[in-house]
């Protein structure tokens, strides 16, 4: 008996091919004058993750942790080897694997890196389903839970 293919699983063998990390600062700060001035002048570095698949679909995630951008970037680069070859649609399995496969399990830097990868994987899952990420994540939640009118 053949498995039933849905729109979400139209590619049965999607694999993660590469993970790229970008540390960007769209508006560079003129000079550091304390934390309040740094925020107002846009001197925050942003960590952006791009997860690429072998089918050409990619996902974007963001994992910025103030004053630890390079540490988050290095953590994502470290986790990259664990991600390559995995199916990006198994988001919960990948999250549990990343959380439990390392010796040190905690800390804000590690959790921010996993969150950035998680966002990118949800983006890929939404693109494979030709759907928005929220409708993929919340497809079983009734509209009345959010106070929206139901038809």
Describe the structure.
It is a single chain. With 151 residues, the chain is of the alpha+beta class. It has one domain: Enolase-like, N-terminal domain (Enolase-like, domain 1), CATH 3.30.390. It contains five helices and three strands. Strand 2 and strand 3 form a beta hairpin. The longest helix is centred in the last third of the chain and has 21 residues, at 108-128. The relative contact order is 0.17. Mean pLDDT is 78; it is low at 1-5.
| Poorly predicted ranges | 1-5
Number of domains: 1
Helix content class: 25-40%
Mean pLDDT: 78
Relative strand content = 5-15%
Report the strand count.
3
Order of helices and strands: EHEEHHHH
Shape: globular
* CATH C-level category: Alpha Beta
The fourth-level CATH homologous superfamily is Enolase-like, N-terminal domain
> Which CATH architecture?
2-Layer Sandwich
CATH third-tier fold name: Enolase-like, domain 1
Derived structural class? alpha+beta
Oligomer: single chain
Tally of helical segments:
5
Q: How would you characterize the largest beta sheet?
A: 3 strands, antiparallel
Radius of gyration: 18 Å
Distance between the termini: 37 Å
User: Which sequence of strands runs across the widest sheet?
Assistant: 1-2-3
Topology summary:
Layout: E1 16-24, H1 35-40, E2 46-53, E3 58-62, H2 69-83, H3 91-100, H4 108-128, H5 133-137
């Amino acid at each position: 008996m053949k498995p039933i293919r849905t729109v979400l699983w139209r590619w049965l063998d999607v694999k993660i091919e590469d993970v790229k990390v970008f540390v960007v600062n769209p508006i560079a700060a003129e000079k550091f004058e304390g934390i309040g001035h740094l925020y107002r002048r846009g001197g925050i570095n942003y960590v952006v993750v791009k997860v690429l698949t072998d089918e050409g679909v990619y996902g974007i995630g963001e994992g910025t942790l103030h004053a630890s951008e390079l540490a988050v970037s290095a953590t994502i680069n470290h986790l990259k080897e664990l991600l390559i070859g995995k199916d990006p649609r198994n988001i919960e399995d990948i999250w549990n694997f990343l959380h439990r496969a390392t010796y040190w399990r905690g800390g804000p830097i590690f959790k921010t890196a996993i969150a950035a990868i998680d966002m990118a994987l949800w983006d890929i899952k939404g693109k494979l389903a030709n759907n928005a990420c929220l409708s993929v994540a919340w497809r079983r939640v009734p509209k009345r839970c959010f106070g929206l009118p139901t038809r």
